[in-house]
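Ops channel
N.P.: pipeline sanity check, posting one input/output pair.
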C-alpha cells in the first residue's frame, strides 16, 4: 500500500508539473463584440472612429472576408465555441447551448482548461437575452470556465425607462437607442473592461498557468446605449447614411432573402433612420474604447508578447442596406464579420483576402497553442494564412439561416413592405437558406433553389444590388457554385460515425421544433 501511495503522489506531482510549466505556452485573449458589422476604420469605413480596434489590426492580421456560420447570436456563438456548424451542434435558435444536444463535446475554452489553462469569462460569450440577462450568466456553459464575471451598469439597471424604442417595453430585439448622460465607467461594457483588467493583473502576478480570457462586450447590440459625450458627438446625425427602402429591391430578389424585415420598421422616417445609425456608430466607438483599455492592460502588464489576441463579432448587421435592419439575412452586411488575430510569428498589419469562417477559430487557436482539439472539428487551421497572407485556404465560407415557422409565413408578413412588394415566405414548414462566399461571388439558394437563387459579383457589384442568378450568361457560374454549395452544406452535418445531436430531416428542411 505504501508503494501504491508513493506512486499516486508521484503521478499527481507529474500532472501538476505539466499543468504549471507555462513559460512557453501562449495565452489567449478572446474579444468578441455583439451585433457588430464592419463599420470600422480598419475595414475602410470613412465615418467610424475606432482607433483602438484599428491599432489592433495594425499589430496583427486582418481578415478581409470573414463570415459567420449563422447570423443570429445563439447559433453563431455556439458554432464558434464548439468548432461545429449549427447542423452538427444542433443549435439553430437562441436560448440554447450545446450541452442540450452534444453534452460530451469539449468547448473551445474547455479544451484549454483540460490542459491546465486558467479559463475566465467576462460578459457575453454564449447567448444572453440582451438587455434583460445582463448581470447574470445568461445561457452560459459552466464547464467552459473557472471564473465568470457579470457586471451590470446603468444601461441595464437605470436607463431603460429613458430609451427610445419602436416597440414599447422592448429593447433587445427591436430598434432602440439612448444617448446617456452618464460617463463610461457607469456602463456595462466599461465595467467589463475593468474586470478584465483585474483578471489580467492576477494572471501577471501568478504566471504559473497560461490563461484563456474571453471578454464579451454587449455593444453595439440594441438598445444602442452609449455616453452622449463624447461618442454621439463624434457623429453628426445629418451625415448618417440613408439607403433605399425595402420596396426598392429589384423584383428578382427572392422573398425569402428579405424575410428578416420586421413590420415595426415601417415606422422609420428618414430622421429616425439617421438617429438610429448615429446611435449605432456611437455604441461602436464606446465599445472600441473598452477594447483599448483591455489591450492596454495586456501591454502594461508585460503579457502581450506571449498572448494570442482575437477580435471578432458574432455576426454582421444591417443599417438599412437592402431596406433591412439588424441581422438574419444572407446578404454581405449580415453574414460578414470583422476578424483580427494577433499571434506570435504571425504577420503585422497584413491583410488576408481568402474567405474564412468563424468555424476556423477553434482549430486555429488550439493549433497555435498546442492544445489537443476534438477530432470532429469542422473548420480549417488558419495558421498558414497568419504567416503568409497569400496562402490558399478552403476558398469559400458558408452561412445559413432558417426560414418559415411552423408552416406560416416568415416575418416579412403580407401587410409589411416586404410582403407588399414580394409576398410572404410560403407555407410548408421550415427551410434553409445557404449562402456561399467565394473571393469573387456570393451565391445563395433558398430551399434548394425552389424558393429562389441569388448570384452577386463582388468585382462589379459590392453592394449586392444586381441578382445575376437567372441571367443566361451566368448559368455556368450558377451551376458550378451550386455544386460547391451543396457539397459544403452536406458537410455541415456530423461526419460518419458521429451520432447526430438532433433528429434531422432532409438537408434543406430541418426537422426541428419551434424554439
Amino acid at each position: 500500500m505504501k508503494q501504491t501511495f508513493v506512486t499516486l503522489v508521484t503521478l499527481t506531482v507529474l500532472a501538476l508539473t505539466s499543468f504549471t510549466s507555462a513559460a512557453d505556452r501562449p495565452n489567449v485573449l478572446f474579444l468578441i463584440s455583439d451585433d457588430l458589422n464592419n463599420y470600422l476604420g480598419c475595414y475602410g469605413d470613412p465615418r467610424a472612429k475606432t482607433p483602438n480596434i484599428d491599432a489592433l489590426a495594425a499589430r496583427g492580421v486582418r481578415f478581409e472576408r470573414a463570415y459567420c456560420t449563422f447570423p443570429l447570436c445563439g447559433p453563431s456563438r455556439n458554432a464558434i465555441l464548439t468548432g461545429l456548424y449549427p447542423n452538427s451542434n444542433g443549435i439553430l435558435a437562441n436560448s440554447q447551448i450545446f450541452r442540450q444536444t452534444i453534452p460530451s463535446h469539449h468547448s473551445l475554452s474547455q479544451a484549454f482548461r483540460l490542459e491546465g489553462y486558467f479559463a475566465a469569462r467576462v460578459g457575453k460569450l454564449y447567448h444572453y437575452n440582451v438587455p434583460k440577462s445582463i448581470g447574470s450568466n445568461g445561457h452560459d456553459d459552466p464547464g467552459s470556465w473557472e471564473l465568470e464575471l457579470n457586471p451590470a451598469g446603468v444601461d441595464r439597471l437605470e436607463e431603460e425607462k429613458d430609451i427610445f424604442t419602436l416597440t414599447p417595453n422592448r429593447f433587445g430585439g427591436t430598434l432602440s437607442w439612448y444617448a446617456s448622460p452618464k460617463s463610461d465607467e457607469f456602463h456595462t461594457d466599461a465595467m467589463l473592461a475593468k474586470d478584465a483588467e483585474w483578471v489580467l493583473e492576477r494572471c501577471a502576478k501568478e504566471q504559473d498557468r497560461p490563461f484563456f480570457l474571453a471578454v464579451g462586450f454587449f455593444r453595439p447590440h440594441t438598445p444602442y446605449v452609449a455616453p452622449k459625450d463624447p461618442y454621439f458627438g463624434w457623429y453628426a446625425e445629418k451625415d448618417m447614411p440613408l439607403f433605399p427602402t425595402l420596396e426598392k429591391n429589384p423584383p428578382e430578389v427572392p422573398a425569402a432573402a428579405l424575410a428578416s424585415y420586421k413590420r415595426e420598421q415601417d415606422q422609420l422616417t428618414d430622421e429616425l433612420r439617421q438617429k438610429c445609425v448615429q446611435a449605432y456608430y456611437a455604441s461602436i466607438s464606446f465599445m472600441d474604447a473598452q477594447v483599448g483599455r483591455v489591450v492596454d492592460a495586456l501591454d502594461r502588464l508585460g503579457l502581450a508578447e506571449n498572448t494570442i489576441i482575437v477580435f471578432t463579432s458574432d455576426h454582421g448587421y444591417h443599417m438599412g442596406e437592402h431596406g433591412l435592419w439588424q441581422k438574419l439575412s444572407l446578404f454581405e452586411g449580415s453574414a460578414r464579420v470583422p476578424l483580427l488575430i494577433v499571434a506570435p510569428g504571425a504577420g503585422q498589419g497584413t491583410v488576408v483576402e481568402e474567405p474564412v469562417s468563424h468555424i476556423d477559430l477553434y482549430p486555429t487557436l488550439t493549433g497555435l497553442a498546442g492544445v489537443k482539439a476534438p477530432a470532429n472539428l469542422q473548420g480549417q487551421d488558419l495558421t498558414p494564412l497568419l504567416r503568409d497572407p497569400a496562402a490558399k485556404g478552403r476558398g469559400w465560407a458558408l452561412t445559413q439561416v432558417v426560414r418559415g415557422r411552423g408552416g406560416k409565413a416568415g416575418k416579412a408578413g403580407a401587410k409589411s413592405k416586404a410582403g407588399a412588394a414580394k409576398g410572404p415566405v410560403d407555407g410548408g414548414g421550415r427551410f434553409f437558406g445557404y449562402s456561399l462566399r467565394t473571393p469573387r461571388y456570393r451565391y445563395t439558394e433558398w430551399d434548394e433553389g425552389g424558393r429562389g437563387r441569388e448570384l452577386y459579383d463582388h468585382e462589379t457589384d459590392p453592394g449586392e444590388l444586381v441578382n445575376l442568378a437567372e441571367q443566361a450568361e451566368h448559368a455556368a457560374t450558377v451551376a458550378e457554385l451550386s455544386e460547391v454549395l451543396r457539397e459544403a452544406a452536406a458537410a455541415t452535418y456530423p461526419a460518419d460515425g458521429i451520432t447526430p445531436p438532433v433528429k434531422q430531416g432532409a438537408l434543406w428542411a430541418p426537422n426541428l421544433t419551434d424554439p
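N.P.: looks fine end to end. The radius of gyration is 23 Å.
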